[in-house]
Design a protein that fits this description.
58% of the residues lie in helices and 11% in strands. By secondary structure, it is an alpha+beta fold. It starts with a helix and ends in a 24-residue tail after the last helix.
């Protein structure tokens, strides 16, 4: 083979590789778009289920209105003092996020396969969301002291005042996630407990959720690891979960079935097989 033929052959190989790569990207984008479309369809189905249930109970209002009232009711359970404590905790979280985020962005840059840190602009929980969450967790007792103690416990348990998502393509997900976890540890972040591995679930939510502590600030935060497809499914089904909250609990299996029509479209990345105990997450390549 002449030098010219060898150069031409390598050029052809490069072109073929680029075509294959672009085709793979196109397929991934198409699947994300399909998941988004099916999510929209299934959200509409969930709304119909919730509306039918509301009418059966004599509630002649849209599910969205019922949900908004329920969330306002949860938030209203907090006293002014409790609301101020929640606001102070969020103020601290916002300050801490400014220190944590650049270090996580560096982890993303240093970890092959991790595409991005998703959720910019929503890395800190909103005041309304935190108030609704805390109010919804309080018990039914009218004992003010008991409620205040419970509020303190629930506030201390919140792990997602600061929250992030790392995204990696399906083909690189398992290795990239392991390496990102190892890199986060090297950065000084401390993993609290075992990550929650949902890839082994037979149906429903897909992805990995983990809780971390930043010793430098004392801030706990949540890190989720997703593929583009599992992230699209998670974001697209959030309203289904909301509508299920305002319906009779006996309808939970029907809402689960609606949600599963979305998550069943999400490919399970190679290397995440196991019993759901996160064993595949051990031994990151950079540790």
């Amino acid at each position: 083979m002449s030098a010219e033929d060898e150069v031409a052959g390598k050029a052809a190989e490069h072109i073929i590789a680029r075509v294959v790569e672009q085709a793979g990207v196109h397929d991934a984008e198409t699947l994300v778009q399909k998941i988004e479309r099916v999510s929209t369809e299934q959200v509409a189905e969930a709304e119909k289920l919730a509306a039918t249930d509301a009418l059966r109970r004599g509630e002649n209002r849209a599910p969205g209105e019922i949900l908004a009232d329920m969330e306002r009711s949860h938030a209203s359970r907090l006293t002014e003092v409790q609301r101020a404590r929640a606001r102070a905790a969020l103020d601290v979280a916002r300050t801490n996020e400014e220190s944590i985020t650049p270090r996580l962005q560096q982890v993303v840059q240093d970890t092959p396969g991790i595409e991005r840190l998703a959720g910019e602009g929503n890395w800190v929980k909103t005041q309304g969301s935190l108030d609704r969450k805390l109010g919804g967790r309080l018990g039914e007792t009218t004992d003010a002291n008991a409620l205040d103690r419970q509020f303190t416990r629930e506030l201390d348990k919140v792990n997602d005042m600061v929250r992030y998502t790392m995204v990696a393509p399906e083909s690189e997900y398992a290795t990239a996630t392991r390496d990102a976890i190892a890199s986060m540890k090297q950065e000084g972040f401390v993993l609290e407990g075992a990550p929650k591995d949902a890839w082994a679930n037979p149906t429903g939510y897909r992805g990995v959720n983990s809780t971390w502590l930043d010793p430098a600030t004392g801030q706990r935060f949540e890190m989720q690891f997703h593929t583009p497809e599992s992230l699209a499914a998670k974001e697209g089904t959030h309203e289904i979960y909301d509508f299920a909250r305002v319906a009779d609990q006996q309808l939970a299996p029907q809402f689960d079935a609606v949600q599963n029509k979305v998550f069943d479209l999400v490919p399970i990345p190679d290397g995440t097989s196991g019993k759901g105990n996160g064993s595949w997450l051990l031994g990151g390549g950079t540790s």
